[in-house]
What we know:
Helix content of chain B: 55-70%
Structural class of chain A: mainly beta
Number of helices of chain A: 2
Strand order of the largest sheet of chain A: 1-2-4-9-6
Distance between the termini of chain A: 58 Å
Number of strands of chain B: 4
Order of helices and strands of chain B: HHHHHEEHHEE
Mean pLDDT of chain B: 89
Shape of chain A: rod-shaped
Oligomer: heterodimer
Distance between the termini of chain B: 59 Å
Largest sheet of chain B: 4 strands, antiparallel
Amino acid sequence: MADLPDRIDLRVHRDLHSPAFNRPARYAILALIGAVVVLGLLNVFGQRPSTSRAESAKASLEITAPSRVRGGLLYQARFTIEAYEQLDHAVLQLGPGWPESQQMNTIEPSPVAETSHDGKLAFTLGTIAARQKYVLYLQFQVNPTNVGHRNADVTLYDGNARLFTIARTITVFP
Amino acid sequence: MDIVIRASVVFALLYTLMRVIGRRELSSLEPFDIILLVVLGDLVQQGVTQDDYSVTGIVLAIGTIALLLLGVSFANYKFPRLRPLLDGEPILVVQNGEPILRNLKRERVTLEDLAAAARQQSIGSIENVQWAVLETTGVISFIKKDDA
């Protein structure tokens, strides 16, 4: 019978008594990888859109956009304003999470004016007649280095009068 | 800086993945495996360099992976206690002409795979094998019986 090959130990290499053959550790790592995949399916890492809504006596606002995205992704945010009464000077103010390190590829329809409200991006939309809808589409692409969690509140004004604020955040995964 | 971190994360992920999936997958390069390798390479590239088309980016990514590979092989050489974790251990799969089924099952190697590997080394029957060792690379080494 041939001798046991060099550097082979029956206890280790046949009976598998070694840290290299640690089954629980192996299964734990595989389970961790599987858990990440399942979390991805459950939209934990984005980019499925969510809808937020607020209303006052004068108007309602509905935002449909993902609140969790990843670097490089293209996505759309849709802002639907429904005026119950005429808004003479509708202004949509976006929190810093919307423009910060994101490419704003398209804004349709183009706002009447764009300005800064105390450091926040504000779009002047003009007049929205009573019982009319105004839908604003914004197309974004996330900069790959834009990782983090930011405030993405949206406030609707009529002139200087604040109608309401929708509290949102945006989380960017690497 | 980002590209170095991304390359390091991808290296760690791939290294861990290769260690836990077992060597059954490492040893066989069938047509599907080759396609999978190409697809995997493409996916990894996007995650590491993203929209960076610069030569600097390539140098950073490749440099990071090369240094990490060097670091792992140095640790493997310098610290023997880390070897089982970093490199794995060879596994005996045949002793005295008898396949060790428990070890074959653990690495998902069938008796057909074993016989095919033996044939590739001009061994007609497992009965003629004294020892067969599934190496850490996924290759099976055969040591014939003295009288075979």
